[in-house]
Every structure is written in C-alpha cells, then in structure tokens.
From TrEMBL:
<dbReference type="InterPro" id="IPR050194">
    <property type="entry name" value="Glycosyltransferase_grp1"/>
</dbReference>
<dbReference type="GO" id="GO:0016758">
    <property type="term" value="F:hexosyltransferase activity"/>
</dbReference>
<keyword id="KW-0328">Glycosyltransferase</keyword>
<dbReference type="GO" id="GO:1901137">
    <property type="term" value="P:carbohydrate derivative biosynthetic process"/>
</dbReference>
<dbReference type="InterPro" id="IPR028098">
    <property type="entry name" value="Glyco_trans_4-like_N"/>
</dbReference>
<feature type="domain" description="Glycosyl transferase family 1">
    <location>
        <begin position="203"/>
        <end position="345"/>
    </location>
</feature>
<dbReference type="Pfam" id="PF00534">
    <property type="entry name" value="Glycos_transf_1"/>
</dbReference>
<feature type="domain" description="Glycosyltransferase subfamily 4-like N-terminal">
    <location>
        <begin position="17"/>
        <end position="179"/>
    </location>
</feature>
<dbReference type="InterPro" id="IPR001296">
    <property type="entry name" value="Glyco_trans_1"/>
</dbReference>
<protein>
    <submittedName>
        <fullName>Glycosyltransferase family 1 protein</fullName>
    </submittedName>
</protein>
<keyword id="KW-0808">Transferase</keyword>
<dbReference type="Pfam" id="PF13439">
    <property type="entry name" value="Glyco_transf_4"/>
</dbReference>
Amino acid sequence: MNRLKVAIVSESFLPAVNGVTNTVRHCADRLLAGGHEVLVVAPAPGLASYRGAKVVRVRSFGLPGYRTFSVGLPDGAVGKALADFEPDVVHLASPFALGYVGLRAARRLGIPTVAVYQTDVAGFARQYGVPGDGLLDRWVGHLHRRADRNLVPSTASATRLRRLGVDDVHLWRRGVDLSLFDPAHRNDDLHAAWSRRSSGDPRVVVGYVGRLAAEKEVHRLEEVARVPGVRLVVVGDGPERARLERALPEAKFTGMLSGRDLAGAFASLDVFVHTGPHETFCQTVQEAQASGVPVVAPAAGGPLDLVRHGVTGLLFDPEDPRSLRRAVAVLGGDPDLRARLGAAGHREVQGRTWERVVDELVTRHYPAVLGAHRPAQRAA
C-alpha cells in the first residue's frame, strides 16, 4: 500500500498512562516505522511532538474525582489541524468528547473515519456515581453509527455496540510486547523479598497491575489479601491508592512501574489478578500471560476472549462475592496448576505482536474506508 497520512484523534495520550494511550502509542510507533505520516490530536497538557510526529493539544479539564485524567473540550484547533494535515483517514481512538469533535471535522472535510471502541463509558460513569448511564450509551452509539468503520477489541464489545444500534463492527484485538513481557525477566530476589515472612513457608505472591481507580473495582483486592498464605503486591497508582494503603497495611505497593521494572514485577508474581468487570479488552491479562504468570480475571467483558477457564487461567463470577477469593485460593494452594496455566497462557499469546496488529489497520481496515471516500457533508 502507498504511504498514508493518518490523523489519530484520541481521548488520551502521553503523559497519561492508560489503555487508550498505550494503544495509540503503539499505533503511532508502527505507522511511523512503516514510513506513514502521523498527526495526533489529544487533550492538553503534554508534549507537542512524538517521535517526530506533531501532537496538537486541545483545551481540557480534569475529571472530577480523577484530576489526572484530562477530558478534551470542543476546540476549533481540531478542524484546523485536520484541514492543514489533509489526512487520508481519521482514526478516532475511543471517541467520546474530543472524538466527537474529530468526527464532525472529518465529516465536514469529507475524510473517512475509523472509530475504535475501547472504553465502557457508562460503566466508568457508574463507578463514580455519575447519573445518566443510558444517555451515555446512546451517545456512544450515536458516534459510532456515524463512523465509516468501527473496530472493537473483543466479542463482548462487539455485542455491546450492536445493542447500541451499530451494525458495522469489526474485531481488532490488541498486541503485546513479547520482547518486554517474558518469563525470563523473573527476578528471584524480588520474589523472595515479596514472599518472605518471619516464620513458616514463603507466601504466594498475588499481584494486581493497573490504575488504582474505582472503575477497576480495586476494593476487591481486600478479598484477595484475606486469602491465607498470600502476599498481595499492587503495581500502579491512582485516586484509590491512599484508601487501599490504609485498608491493606500488609500489602506491598510499588507505585507506577514501566519498562523493564514493570516486566520484572509481572514475571516475579506467582498469580496475577484483575478485579474489574468493565474491561473492553484487559491488556494486563495479556501481559501477565506473556510473562508466564497464571491469571485470575472476571468472567465478563474482554477477559472472556483472553482466558480459557481451567486452561490458560481461571475466571471468577463478578456477581458472586466469594468467587474471586475461591479462585485465588485454588491457585495459591496448587503450584502444579499455577505452572500449567502459566505455561499455557504464555503459549496462547505468542504471535500477538503490536506490529502484526497495527499492520492489520494498514492492510485491511484503513483501505476499507479509503475506497468509500465521500464528499464533504454536514456535521454529525
């Protein structure tokens, strides 16, 4: 395919750390490496360029109760940036607020759009006590019905969008950095420090990696910490950290980690646990599997595609208050099962590279809308 000009309008980008940012970063990396031109439009604050690609920052405000999460505001800079860049396609990353502005601008300019559904906005809002989840769902459906092509990371996400009246839905999963997340990065000294206790056998190290925020239902880590013989390790940061540290004085909190430090932490766990049932994909499950660590995840959303119960991990019923604790106890008490599930999960993710995933955009999804390039029309 000829070199493309791709404008990515994202609800989040560096320095924010979350799934949307991570996906956009990998997309930009691979597109730039392939010789394509990239423009990123994202909420302020942040750098004005990324690996030589221009980043247009728009006005934003911090989400109440979660001030480090910036929400982009309507801004005329979006339309101007797209008109000046003249992209072949506009890639809308988890469109909601800023994505709506990007969609309107693209339609006015006659530029085809690919929208990537990545955030359960209604579920997110419910966790923060924001009313109107039905209205939020209708808004998400409204946006995606007006995009030329819609991509989802899981079968659960596809079902959700179709229930919102979106017919044009295509599965586009996530990659994992197999050179970074690998069992070879296990640190025996680190594991020993985490598992050590003053007397008796070492404890089983059970870890959570991710944002410490209400939508992740991290309060359920208290259930994990009560499993006998378990040492809980919490990797990440967020608005719930202070409360969790008070509630879990015996747990180890590492703060946010990245790169080799994160890979070493993942590989040094005995069990990985994810608590939230609202994930459209759940990237940390893949990263744990790539690290050779057995997974416990909710039987809801994205993990249903990633975890084969009893084969590559264990799924718990998020509606059963005892199910998570039982699953952790089963793995905690059976080292052979841990080894078998960890090895199977590791095999499962081989080949799921970001390069392969982003190349699918270039060879399949972008071309599908380029052939349907339309004249400028009225805004959405």
